[in-house]
Amino acid sequence: MRLDEMKIAVIGAGIGGLAVARALALRGADVTVFEQAPEIAEVGAGLQISPNGFAVLAALGLGDALRSVRGAAVHLCDYHGGEVLRLDLGRLTRAEYHFVHRADLIDLLAEGARAAGARFRLLQKVTDVGPGARPRVETASGAAFEADLVIGADGLHSVARTALNGITAPFFTRQVAWRALVPNAAGRGAEVRVHMGPLRHVVSYPLREGSLLNLVAVQERAAWTSESWSQTDDPQALRAAFNDFGAEVREMLAAVETVHLWGLFRHPVARVWQRGGVAILGDAAHPTLPFMAQGACMALEDAWVLADALSRAETVEAGLARYQVRREGRTRRVVEAASRNAWKYHLSFPPLRWAAHTALRAGGALAPERMIRQFDWIYAHDVTREAA
After folding, report:
1. Which of 78, 162, 310, 331 is 20–30 Å from 194 (CA)?
2. Sign of the CA dihedral with 377 first, then 378, 379, and 382 last
3. Residue 86's pLDDT is what?
4. How far apart are alpha carbons 98 and 108 in whole angstroms?
5. Which one is the CATH code of 3-42+103-168+267-341: 1.20.58.2190, 3.50.50.60, 3.40.50.2000, 3.30.470.20?
6. pLDDT averaged over every residue in the chain
7. What is the dihedral of CA 117, 63, 308, 119, to 10 degrees?
8. Is 352's pLDDT higher than 80?
């Protein structure tokens, strides 16, 4: 099938939408990206781009331009500050592990999509998507846009997902997360630190040449919190929730001036990813809890595979069906792994926590290679080279 004869609409200018726009435009497709915001921008937050995600950026011709901190290690620490386990990222089969400011990645992908020929229509809130022989996008202004293919990269509250699957209700995991950026006053090196405490943990790592630290703090609690990245909170509430953590964490939290809070909800992986010339990717298809740091990487992988599957197929229908086959099993496995991971950081029964930390220390001392290679099924996978 010739992509240079296709007219494609992409809903959403996030990581997945921008990546698929570049991937398809590079193959000659006529791509239009619909974005409800007045500009292509992103709020301040950090991302971890592991080797599987970086492989896609490299294949899109953007790897060398990525503004990042090259990750060296992951440290698991007790909440009082003692080290439990150090994972050397240099031992990975492929050691391209990067800490990236989300806004920098968005800028890189947007510039890449434009350079490849994709067009952008801003201030376009999509209200309906119609699958069919000629799929369409409808906006809040009443305008309609027809295409050969509509791709929903419109996130957790995806209009395209609803068009394919109907409304599915998520459930609150009884966990909330704060995120903030603070100056890297202590000169922290290129490492992730995870401070693990009873029913809580704090993740921190450097961004922008080490000038900033990205903080994500997670707490288990019964009170429901909205699933919105734009909701702010009082920094004092964050500090109070972690006031029994060690000095390093308290010093980082003391520097927080602006903090966002959101509830962590588990959504089912979509049953239908494609139908009638409409496809979904990223969070629209498989929202992922943050406990494996794979949300952005899964969206990048989806984008590459969708473009690749279409370029190899004789029809749109065949290409989209192959896309779902290639992606569904892997993303389900990642979603399930992330959902299982939180309890490991939140052990509250002291003997159990001691036993778990002792086992981690022993594993790190006796089999450091094995400890890091347990993640090869995620990190060493390269969708740009997999059999189609």
Report:
1. 331
2. positive
3. 85
4. 14
5. 3.50.50.60
6. 89
7. -20
8. no
Placement of tokens 């492989």 in the chain: 55
* Residue whose structure tokens are 């703090």: 217
pLDDT tens, position by position, 196-231: 888 899 999 999 999 999 999 999 887 765 555 568
Location of structure tokens 């980082």: 252
Token couple for 174: 């009884």
Q: Which two tokens stand for residue 315?
A: 């029809």
Q: What's the sign of the alpha-carbon dihedral 148, 268, 47, 328? A: negative
Instruction: At 377, list the tokens.
Output: 């099924």
180 strand-pairing partners: 215
State the pairing for strand pair 149-152/200-207: unpaired
Rounded distance between C-alpha atoms, residue 214 and residue 206, angstroms: 6
d(CA 130, CA 138): 8
- Active site positions, annotated: 205
CA angle, 378 as apex, 377 and 380 as ends, to 5°?
A: 75
The residue whose two tokens read 């929202």 is: 287
Q: Which residue reads 């003997």 in tokens? A: 351
Q: Is 209 exposed, middle or buried (0-12, 13-18, 19+ CB in 10 A)?
A: exposed
Q: Which DSSP string corresponds to 137-166?
A: EEETTS-EEE-SEEEE---TT-HHHHHHH-
Between CA 47 and CA 192 the distance in angstroms is 11
